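Example: Sulfotransferase family protein.
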Amino acid sequence: MTTLPSDDLIIVYGALRSGTTVFRLMLDAHPRIANPGEVDFLFDHLHPAPDHPTGWRYDLKALRLNRIFLSKNLTIPEGRDGLDLLVHFLDQFRLRHPGAILSLNLHRGVERLVEIMPDIRIIHMLRDPRDVARSCIGMGWAGSLYYGIGHWIGTETAWEAVASRLAPDQVLTLRYEDLFTDTEGSLGAVCAFFGVEWNPWMLEYSETSTYAPPDRSLIAQWRRKCTPREVALAEGKAANLMRARGYPPTDLARAPSRAEALWLAFHHRASVWRFNGRRYGYALYFGEKVARRAGAARVHAGLRQRLNVIQAQHLK
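Written out as structure tokens, the predicted fold is:
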């Protein structure tokens, strides 16, 4: 398959709720760096296609319903697809920030990224998965720490699959905990990775966004706000991966009993349905799911657009 050059692009890759948004605000405050935010849609809807000259093709219908894609105001030229369209998207970002080094955030799709851009440089962002899981509950994505940690597991499992294919100088590991306790030191290392000078404006992001300055109290909240049972079950699910990423589990880590597993599954689904039903309205939330599964494309598109509007209203 065709591969693309990536000399002037750096990816920030990390699990949802791992600090990638506040970090991107810091990057975007630097006069020589541009980071317009998350772009998972670039790879979520890009699939292998032997019949296309580039070996890839976009699911354009799904792409046009993607809330993040729509928020970026990118154009899709008639007849352009596959890696040609990916290049066009990247060029549009570059044209909006002439002279700046382009940086983009990804939470998924790192396997496709590395396959398409084998020389890509990546800032691998890590956060204690127990805090990631807590945050996922607050977002309505999970009903418990046990299910919330699944987002982190998925992101890091994908990373495990590609890490050995990347040279040491292609990767910079950045921990949320370090970024919030030694912000200037961490950003100095980041600037060196970008090949630019450290700039104190990177610390002024809170003046132009809704995000507060780095707060050390956000670190290890799981120790204060989670029960030992919650922590034990979540750690039991991710223990080996946690050790590999430098977040050793406690001595309590264990797998759930059969009865616990059934309760966790029921509670997770009920919690997610309740959260989203209250936020979007039960008719809209479940109607979108039914329309999608039934293949009612026009009805689904209309409901999806209504969901997108409500989601955008809740963004920080």
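The longest strand covers residues 9-14.
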